[in-house]
Structures are given as C-alpha cells and as structure tokens.
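Wait, can you check?
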Amino acid sequence: MTATVEPEENVEKPSRMGLVIGLVMALAGGGAGFYATYSGLVSGLIGGSGHAPTAEAQATEGADAETPRADVGFVPLEPITISLGPRAESRYLRFSAQLEVAPAHASEVEYLIPRIMDVLNIYLRALDPLELEEPAALLRLRAQMLRRVQIVTGPGYVSDLLVMEFVLN
C-alpha cells in the first residue's frame, strides 16, 4: 500500500480588522453627533441660535413674562367631573383647563367647545384609574388631550392646553 501524503492547506481565519474599524468609526460618529447636539451646533443648523442666552437676554425674557402678551388669548373650558369606577383608589377625577389660542381664533375655538368637551370627556373616561395615579401621568395626559383638541379645532388654532385643576378625590 502506498501512503499518499497530502500537503496541508494553510487555512487563514478571516480578519476581523474590518469589524474593529467599523466599530471604532461608529463610536467616533456617535460621539461627534452627541458633541454637536450638546454644544448647540445642530440647533444652529436647524434655525436655533446655537448658543446659550446671555444674562441680558434672560433678563429681557423675564420682563416679557411679567407683561401681558397681546398675541395670546385663553378660552376657559367647563370643569369635568368623571367617576373612576370600583378599581380606583379615588372615586372621582375633577379636571378643568384653559386653551391657549391666538386672539383672532378665540371665537372660532369657543364655537367648538361642545366638541372639545366631548373629546376630553371620552378620553378621560377611557383611562385606566391606576394610570391616573402615576406621578408622571399629568404630563402625558396633558400632551394627549392637547393633541385631541388640536385635531378637533384644526391646525394652528390651539397652541397649548393649560391644566387649571386635576384632582383625584
């Protein structure tokens, strides 16, 4: 019998250098993106000032906050009282709010108050009572209610929803 010896093939493992370089580049890009956002470079590109306000600008803003603005009006909403059901620790939710509108649109928004109240009543009634008792619930609820009001009134009519009363009783 003849023994045949086959030459060993040098099998090279694939290099992981490309993977390492890709990972380093991804980390560098992420760090650069964070720095650009944190330092204000990104806000400068999208229309922001790109720098922190000076002490004079902050003082001017404080003075503006004290004087009434003529370009803002408020439309009060009637208080809403909702029973929360047997699963809740509290029995009732009492809610009242005001809508921030442009004075030119105040009468149009007042005309839609019955629809707005309907949307808010339905939304608040559909909430889980345990959800209302969470510490951060009011912020989330406010955003959701504002979005629903803006859908009813149309874009550009209501700029904010101000919560005047939110009492779980």
Summary: The mean pLDDT is 81. The beta strands are 73-76, 80-83, 92-101, 158-168. DSSP finds seven helices and four strands in the chain.
